[in-house]
Amino acid sequence: MRLQTKLILIICSLLVFIIVSLGGIFYYLMTSALEDQIGTRALKVAETVASMPEIRHAFQLNDPSAVIQPIAETVREKIDAEYIVVGNREGIRYSHPLPDRIGKEMVGGDNGPVLAGQSIISKAIGSLGPSLRGKAPVFGDNGQVIGIVSVGFLTEDIALITTAYQTRIEMISLIVLIIGLVGSVLIAHNVRRSIHGLEPKEIGALYTEKKAILESIREGIIAVNREGIITMANRYALQLLQLPVTAKITGRHIEDIIPNTRLYEVVRSGKAEFDHEMLIGDHEVIVNRVPIIERKLGVTGAVSSFRSKSELYQLAEELSQVKRFAEALRAQTHEFSNKLYVISGLIQLESYQEAVELISREADVHQNWVQFIMREIPDPMIGGLLIGKFNHAQELKITFEIDHESSFSDIPAQIDRNMLVTIIGNLVDNAMEAVLAGGDQTEPYVKLFLTDLGEDLIIECEDRGVGIPEETSMAVFEKGFSTKEGEHRGIGLALVQHAVGKLSGYITFHKNPAGGTIFTVAIPKIPDLKERSLSYGTPESNR
């Protein structure tokens, strides 16, 4: 059964139950009140008639009925009672609406309390049928009960009055039920429209799926309503906020959790914000903010997704490292192919001695280079990177030299090798681009110096390239800034600065006397707890 049909049936059933119950209770209360009112009126009339001097004196006459009957009938007609009967202690009637019953005994069997001096209201079957009556004693001059006054209203007449009220109650209940039925249809329709026509099972499935999706996303997600109250937050958001996974932040104000939030601006403006940087606790994060817009209500809240900036840098570096390895393999393959072509040509020309000398020379160069790397830079990641850069430089006809005084074997285990690869790889790549961009055309030259002597790791990269213009010196480390044309520029030095900061080091640059720029990086072997990344010097080339 569909949800809309269920809602209509439930609401209508509830309305029928409430209306029938209230109608029955109201009818019962009304009937009881009407009987109480009529009984009280009958009793008051009976007491009034019993206290009339004419009635009391008439009991001393030889024919009391001659005086009592006219008075009783006059009063009965005025109050519209069914009967007023006056009788003596023996129950003999002195008045009755039917004159032929005067002188006969009163019936009903309820005169006992009255003869004892009490006024009562009772229901009994009299000579005219079942009736509700009030009875009062008539007292003589000596205070003794000398007679009885009974004023009655037939139960049948009372039922006619209550039936009229019952009809009205039924009509009102029917009208209310019809209005309730129309209202239930409208409510069910609005509910169905509000939940986009989904059934409860579908809503439950969507909720479960949404929860699973939110928990599987490796980004923090927080949603707020128009007042800034948090309505949803996934587990990864709690981790970035440095809160326990079991913490409940829904229902709290967003400023209590993230004081520097800009979600209010998004709610007010209705405009999304993408890739904004902000600080949450000790974490630098990249934030996206999107308003929640409903067709009729407008902006009803906002959703913010954020991810640790360090994770994004790590991902970018992994991609860059893969790219560097691919370029190194390509360069080595290309260079090896060229050498094979030369050797093949020399053999075809029967220049065997020259072919042997070329093979020996190339083997010696590579062997010496590899042996130097293995001896002075034993770390496989850094060594592999430098060999790849050497092959790439040969392909580009760039002289790439590592200072023979270099030594990089004493690297503490706590220093992240990926960060060092990021620093060295990007500095060398930028230096190669600089020398190819218009520096010393006769001899493109890049030199790298690495040392682990003392308390710091020193990385120095020297080029004879175009240099860094002085007017751009303050922007060289900004992500996206570059003086070179093309897309995806201005990332290398930003990654270097970020990696240096993570290792609590600093970076400087100054003009190379031979032309170009010298970049120097110092990384403490025992890093400080506070991250730092300083850049200063005379800028000469934009990487």
Mean pLDDT: 79
Order of helices and strands: HHHEHEEEHHEEHHHEEEHHHEHEEHEE
How many DSSP helices?
A: 14
State the shape.
rod-shaped
- According to DSSP, the number of beta strands is 14
Termini separation: 68 Å
Low-confidence sequence ranges: 529-543
Helix content: 40-55%
Fraction of residues in β-strands = 15-25%
How large, in whole angstroms, is the Cα Rg? 54 Å
Strand order of the main beta sheet, please?
6-5-9-8-7
Decide which structural class fits the backbone.
alpha+beta
Summarize the main sheet.
Answer: 5 strands, antiparallel
Tell me the layout of helices and strands:
Elements: H1 3-50, H2 53-58, H3 64-79, E1 83-88, H4 112-115, E2 120-126, E3 129-139, E4 145-154, H5 155-194, H6 200-216, E5 220-225, E6 230-233, H7 235-240, H8 254-257, H9 263-269, E7 273-280, E8 283-294, E9 298-308, H10 309-348, H11 352-376, H12 380-395, E10 399-402, H13 417-436, E11 445-451, E12 456-463, H14 492-502, E13 506-511, E14 517-524
Parallel strand pairs: 10-11
Antiparallel strand pairs: 1-4, 2-3, 3-4, 5-6, 5-9, 7-8, 8-9, 11-12, 12-14, 13-14
Helix pairs in contact: 1-5, 10-11, 10-12, 10-13, 11-12, 12-13, 13-14
Describe this structure in words.
It contains 14 helices and 14 strands. It has 543 residues and is of the alpha+beta class. The strands form three sheets. The chain has a five-stranded antiparallel beta sheet. A five-stranded mixed beta sheet has the order 10-11-12-14-13, with helices on one face. β8 (283-294) and β9 (298-308) form a beta hairpin. The chain is rod-shaped and about 175 Å long. The two termini are 68 Å apart.
